[in-house]
Every structure is written in structure tokens, then in C-alpha cells.
Write a structure and sequence with these properties.
The chain has two helices and twelve strands. By secondary structure, the protein is α+β, with helices and mostly antiparallel strands. It has one domain: Thiol:disulfide interchange protein DsbD, N-terminal domain (Immunoglobulin-like), CATH 2.60.40. It has a five-stranded antiparallel β-sheet with strand order 6-7-3-10-11, with no helix packed on it. A four-stranded antiparallel β-sheet has the order 1-2-8-5. The protein has a three-stranded antiparallel β-sheet with strand order 4-9-12, with no helix packed on it. A hairpin with a 2-residue loop joins β1 and β2. The longest helix has 25 residues. It is elongated. About 15% of the residues have low confidence. Keywords: Membrane, Plasmid, Signal, Transmembrane. InterPro entries: DsbDN, DsbDN_sf. This is Putative thiol:disulfide interchange transmembrane protein.
Length: 151
Amino acid sequence: MKTQRRAFLHSVAAACLAAFCVSVQAEPDLLQPDEAFRVSARRVDARVVELEYIIAPGYHLYRDRFSFKTDNPAVTVAGVELPPPLEKFDKAMGQNMRYYTERVAVRVRLAGGNQAVKLVATAQGCAAIVGVCYAPITKAFSVPAMGGRQG
């Protein structure tokens, strides 16, 4: 009797393990954050830095999870311009969430003069297909003064 029970438990465990392995293999591989959300920055004029986020297919960035700051107290973030987002109800959050797919250009207005500055950008996104969200992603960009002038 013990042998039959042990054999039954082994077969149940093997079936569960096989089902788990199949479900793990069926999930798509998640991209690394730098692959899912590529970002670059360029100074547009003395007061504006534009960041361009390229978002991999099946991924999105949340509109309300962007933040920006500088490393220089003399140059501050005066405002952020974002394009209109997409919106959908998120059951897990229990509310409408605003987000971007494919590409989004963000303009960061600076106050304090035309000085070289390090702009620190933070964003958060998810792999929409599998419902996995990434921790906030922070990138720092060295942004030179326009025309080489300091001031």
C-alpha cells in the first residue's frame, strides 16, 4: 500500500512539474529594461532638453511615472511637456492608467541659464503582454551648454 501511495505521489509531482515547465516555457522572454525602454537626450535650445524614449513592442511606459531633476542647484526643472497618452482601465490598480507605446518625446524645460548640466530622468514601464512591471529606471545625461557658452 505504501509503495502504491508513494508511486502515486511521485506521478502527481512529476505531472505538476511538467505543467510548471510548460507554463514557464510558454511565457515570452522579458527584455532587459535598457532594451525595452531605450532613451536618448539632446539639448534643443538653452532652456529645453528633449528625451526620446523608444519603447519595444508589447511594452509601455506610464505617463505619471516620469520624473526629472538636475545635479546643479543653479539649473532646475521648470516644467515637463508630454504628449497626450493612451488610457485604459487597469484591473490590478483599480483605476485608469495613462501610458505610451512605441515612442514618446518628452521636453524638459530648464530654468537657471545656459549651463552644462546633468539631467537625471526616471521612468517606469511594464511588459503589457505578461503584466510584469519593472522597477523605476533612472538614467543620467550630461547635457552641454548651447554654443559652448556658460551662463
